[in-house]
Amino acid sequence: MEVGIHASMCDDATFKLASALHPIFRKLGSRLGGDYGGVMEHLWIDFELIDLRAKEDGKPRFPFRLQKRVSGRSRFGLPPAPDQFNVGHFSVRPDFALLPSLSKAQVVPYALALIYEASSVLFEKQKKLGGFDAVRFKAKIHEECGKLGYSFPAQEGA
Predict the structure, then answer these.
(1) Which residues of 67-94 are buried (b: 16+ CB within 10 A; e: fewer)?
(2) How far apart, in whole angstroms, are the C-alpha atoms of residue 110 and residue 21?
(3) Are 28 and 148 in contact (CB under 8 A)?
(4) Residues 47, 62: Cα–Cα separation, whole Å
(5) H or E segment to which residue 87 belongs
(6) 69-126, pLDDT tens digit by residue?
(7) Model confidence, pTM
């Protein structure tokens, strides 16, 4: 499974934070790639940095969804062949009242801890994901964040 973690949508107020997050998200995403079982081939995690786009109830814009992409488009003039990737996607919503008070050094561990917490959504979806090992994935997040120099308390069950 390939993992992508992004803070690609930001505004003027959060641009500097997004710039601080991009390198660590790229590193962490590449380190999280691997076989966790199940049907998911790609996992995209979006870290929301635009308050106006956030849902009014404080929940992430995309709690979790799994979709199978089947475009049927041809590539490079070849006959049409369906693209079949099972893509999981969820977003993480930070506390927008807290963000302005965080320095660039503080925003990275804050964001990583939120991503770690939000990955719990995968526990609820394990059956739908065909045996995806959410416990191992969440433990890998914790382990790799530690190797990158960012630590936070592990939650029970991971």
Answers:
(1) eeeeeeeeeeeeeeeeeeebbbbbbbbb
(2) 10
(3) yes
(4) 10
(5) strand 85-92
(6) 655 565 566 666 556 678 999 999 898 889 889 888 899 999 999 999 999 999 988 8
(7) 0.84
